[in-house]
């Protein structure tokens, strides 16, 4: 079981990563590894595993999340944005993992006339989602134009 976050640029600091880790420790009641994907691990709690971002992609903002799908994983993975606040038990989130599928939050707060009613602040998956990465990488210019 792995719980991951992503820190890129200066919008969020190591304090955000460390705070999220502490919230997970208090509210996830099973064994887990906590992993932070970042280009700057300065002052991040040493109990957190660091995975360096592949900066050659020159991505920005939320697009870095796509790198999470570059390699398959056999472990159930929960992704949490750094601005998520955890107040209660989140152990049940692991039960939403379906082999080779991505589970996202339904964004019930968005108006129904928007083009997407999902949110990527919390994602759960296990298995091979490399197709998501491959489609994204093959069409970088198209996706990055929408910033």
Outline the structure in words:
It contains three helices and six strands, in the order E-H-E-E-E-E-E-H-H. It has 147 residues and is of the alpha/beta class. Strands 3-2-1-4-6-5 form a six-stranded mixed beta sheet, covered by helices on one side. Strand 1 (2-7), helix 1 and strand 2 form a beta-alpha-beta unit. It is globular and about 40 Å long. The model has no long low-confidence stretch (mean pLDDT 88).
Label this structure with key terms.
3 helices; alpha/beta; 147 residues; 6-stranded mixed β-sheet; 6 strands; 27% strand
Round the Cα radius of gyration to an integer and report it: 15 Å
Q: Helix fraction? A: 10-25%
Nearest-integer average pLDDT: 88
> Helical segment tally?
3
CA distance, first residue to last residue:
33 Å
Sequence stretches where pLDDT stays below 50 over 5 or more residues: none
Given helix and strand content, the structural type is alpha/beta
Shape: globular
Strand content: 25-35%
Main sheet strand line-up: 3-2-1-4-6-5
Quick description:
With 147 residues, the chain is an alpha/beta fold. The chain has helices at residues 14-27, 130-138, 140-144; strands spanning 2-7, 33-38, 49-52, 73-80, 101-106, 118-127.
